[in-house]
Amino acid sequence: xxxxxxxxxxxxxxxxxxxxxxxxxxxxxxxxxxxxxxxxxxxxxxxxxxxxxxxxxxxxxxxxxxxxxxxxxxxxxxxxxxxxxxxxxxxxxxxxxxxxxxxxxxxxxxxxxxxxxxxxxxxxxxxxxxxxxxxxxxxxxxxxxxxxxxxxxxxxxxxxxxxxxxxxxxxxxxxxxxxxx
Length: 181
Known about the structure:
This protein is an alpha+beta fold. Helices cover 22% and strands 42% of the residues. The protein has three helices and twelve strands. The strands form three sheets. Strands 4, 5, 6, 7, 9, 10 and 12 form a seven-stranded mixed sheet that branches. A three-stranded antiparallel sheet has the order 1-2-3, with no helix packed on it. Strands 8-11 form a two-stranded antiparallel ribbon. The longest helix has 17 residues, at 164-180. It starts with 5 loop residues before the first strand and ends with a helix.
């Protein structure tokens, strides 16, 4: 018996503005063919935006999937799959927070839900923030808030922040800061 798993066919089920949904036909090592869902995502970027005082800029926005407001790192999807994530990060930082930075440094890359989605999010750290102007998309309502790093970490452990890119970005930034001391 071969241990190889092989995709036989991929069918587009629904094309969306953010994701595309596919039905994959997968041949298992025992020869069975199963249908698995696959979500194609164009990728995204997020930003740990650090003020001169060392606080992190966070965005509070409504998320339909959860039917509630969430507190997150500024982030957004790439305009095209080819767009460099650092350009996406810079754009989203300014659009969502009203600040820009000419100093973005890659922090981590993460795959959000590997069981059924290929979404890749690159997280950057931005400091030396320059005041600009929020440029929200139509229908986007975002409130910008500032927090201490330790306060955000406590919010993670208190289950007040659960968004994967935000949890990963904040904890990776905390670890980076500790390693630099």
